[in-house]
Each structure stands twice: as structure tokens, then as C-alpha cells.
Amino acid sequence: MSVEDQQSGEDLDQEFDAVPEPSVDEDTDAGPAPVAVQSGPPTGVMSAERLAIKALESKLLGGERKLRRREVAAGAGVSILSARKIWRALGFPNFGDEDVAFTERDQAALSTILDLVRAGVLTEEAAISVTRSIGQMTDRMVVWQIEALVEDMVSEQGIPDALARKQLVGQLPGLVDSLEEILVYSYRRQLNAGVQRLAVRAEAGLQASEEGREGDEDDSPLPLARAVGFADLVSYTSLSRRMNEKTLAQLVQRFENKCAEIISVGGGRLVKTVGDEVLYIAETPAAGAEISLALAQAFTEDEILPQCRVSMVWGRILSRLGDIYGPTVNLAARLTTLAQPGTVLVDAMTAAALGQDDRFVLVPQKSENVRGFGEIHPVMLARGRGKGLVLD
């Protein structure tokens, strides 16, 4: 184990106060200086494709790679260990001391993160967590966008996948600024919605929790009261075995898009998609019920997709790293396996929270012994008065 790895548990504020390490490695005096990593062939003229890739990289990174990792760390005023913690949180690969892998923008970004800690705006732990959220979300977003653009080119232009990926390099420079503008716009809108959902309207959710949950809510170790739902496609495994790659991709995309739209219209949040299943939350039992019924109906009426099983449980959860945890989530997952295709199941306490709302009909089902919960009393949720969610 290296000395750096042994020190990885040290607090960042201790690293910030340390004298920055020199930009040149100690062992370089014994031999020639490291050779810069070349992105193109050592001799000859670059091909048009390589030139396009180099031009795109320069636009995306804000300039040519000129700095080694120790130079960036020294410029930001921290040790290489502290810099590596940030880069790992962002999801960057490991670079060696000899790799010329960074630009001045990398140094500015590193300084921005560290300055938040130095100013006391964020703790070291919070800075790493926030940075990791950015890295993980943007990584998934980039993969999603590239695949969507390639798929569109293959479909519209009738070209092979490999050719589409090469041609995308030439098209991206004209898209980057627009995509970046939309990203910043969406981030600000989502941040505002998150503040309203998680902070401003939190009191309403806590009050609603008293309708269907027993015990002293103030003493609960789980802070948020939410409706937690699962929607699971029926017979997905057998269907996927009979489909080619393109058809399966279209099915998954159709499923995800429809779920995302319904959950959004209902005022909920899609937490994550795992293959043939989506996990979502809403702020009140009624909102969760409306979303759940809309999902079950939408897939029953869909001409391409199979039906889905849906469950919803109202209770307390822990929200961390963009995901949710707790017994409420586990119970909702168990109920999904008990639901019949095209139906929605809730537990008895969730049914009690919805019992006085004439928009819903609650039909008790036979008791079930569920692993981890013992005997539970599922209740089928059906449409009562009203039209439910109105989808365009």
C-alpha cells in the first residue's frame, strides 16, 4: 500500500493547510524529465478524424492539456492527495505523475470546490458528497445523450452504428453550447423544485404522515414521510430473450419515457430505473395513489408494452446519494411481487391514510406472509370518483 493510500482517511482541512507539493517529482532529478503524453501519432500528419477529435477535446476541456496532476494540485494550493479525493469523487480515472492530462480549467474547477471548504460553506465530507453527485449524474447523462444521438443518426440516416459514432464527433461542436445551456437551465429549475419538495413543503408531508402511521413521528430515525412506489413490467425476462438488441432498447426506452412522464405529471420523482422496474416517490398518499393508478392503466392500455405490477406504501424513508432507503422501500418492493398484472397493491396502513378519499376504492386481499415483515394485509387500490391524472 502506498503512503498516499494510507493517508486517504485524513481530513481535507489538514491537507489544505499543508505546503503544496512541488510540481516536479522528487525522483525526476535522477533522470530525464517525463515526456508529455501525445494524443496523436508521433510522426506524420494527423488524419482528419484525429484532428476533429483533438478540436472537440480542446473545446470541451477549455484548452490543450498542458498540466500534470502535481502542477494542478500545487496551483490550487493543496496536496496531491486532496486533489485525488476530488477527482475520484468526480469519477476521473487515475493519472500518473508523468501524464500531461489537465488544463487550466481543471485547476480552476478544483480551486472552486476547495474554496467552498476553505470559506466554511461546506464541510470536507459535504464537498466530497456533492462533488460525487455531480460526477455520477453527469456521467450517466453523457452516456444517455451520446447513445440517443447515435441511435437517431442510425435511424434517420440509415448508417451503421460505428459510422454514426465517428460522425458524431464532427456534429458535437455545434451542439455543446446549446446542451450546456439547457443543462444549467434544468439544474436551476430542478434545484428550485427540490428545495420546495424537500424543505418548504416538508411540514405538509410530516403532517400527512400522522394520518396512517403510528408512533411518535418526532422520534423517528427516518426524517422524510413519502409515498414510495414500484412499477414492474410483467414477463420482461421472457420477452427480452426473444428480442434483438434494437427492439429491446426501444421497449426499455418506451417504458422509461412513459413512467417518467406519468410520475412527473403526478408531481412525483422518479428515483431510479433498474431494468424492467422503476422506483418513484410522491409527497402525499393521494399523490402516490394517483401516480400508481395512472401507471397501471397506461401499461394495460399500451399496444406494445406488457402490463405492469404496481405497489405503493406511505411511510418514512432516508434519502441519500439520490436514492432512498428504509423499511418502507422494502415493503413496497415485496408488495410488487404480490400484485396481479395491471393492479396496484398498498399495505393496510397506507389504505387507512386513503380511506376517507372518495377518489379511491380499497379492496382488502387475503393476508400474506412476507419475508422480513411477517403477516401483512395487502389492499388493492382502484379508481373511485374523478378522472385521475390527466395526461396529454
Strand content: 5-15%
Structural class comes to alpha+beta
**Sheet having the most strands:** 8 strands, mixed
Shape: globular
Radius of gyration: 26 Å
Give the beta-strand count: 10
CATH topology of the largest domain: Alpha-Beta Plaits
Number of individual domains: 2
Can you tell me the CATH class of the largest domain? Alpha Beta
Q: Write down the overall mean pLDDT.
A: 82
* Helix-strand topology string: HHHHHHHHHHEHHEEHEEHEHEEEE
CATH H-tier superfamily of the largest domain? Nucleotide cyclase, GGDEF domain
Region (Disordered): 1-42
Enzyme class: lyase
Keywords: Lyase
Biased composition (Acidic residues): 7-29
What key attributes describe this structure?
15 helices; 392 residues; alpha+beta; two-stranded antiparallel sheet; adenylate cyclase activity; EC 4.6.1.1; 51% helix; single chain; Alpha-Beta Plaits; disordered N terminus
Would you spell out the secondary-structure blueprint of this structure?
Elements: H1 3-6, H2 12-16, H3 48-61, H4 69-76, H5 80-90, H6 104-118, H7 124-157, H8 161-171, H9 176-200, H10 202-209, E1 224-233, H11 236-242, H12 245-265, E2 269-274, E3 277-282, H13 285-301, E4 308-320, E5 323-325, H14 327-338, E6 344-346, H15 348-354, E7 360-364, E8 368-370, E9 374-376, E10 379-383
Parallel strand pairs: 4-6
Antiparallel strand pairs: 1-3, 1-4, 2-3, 4-5, 6-10, 7-10, 8-9
Helix pairs in contact: 4-6, 5-7, 7-8, 12-13
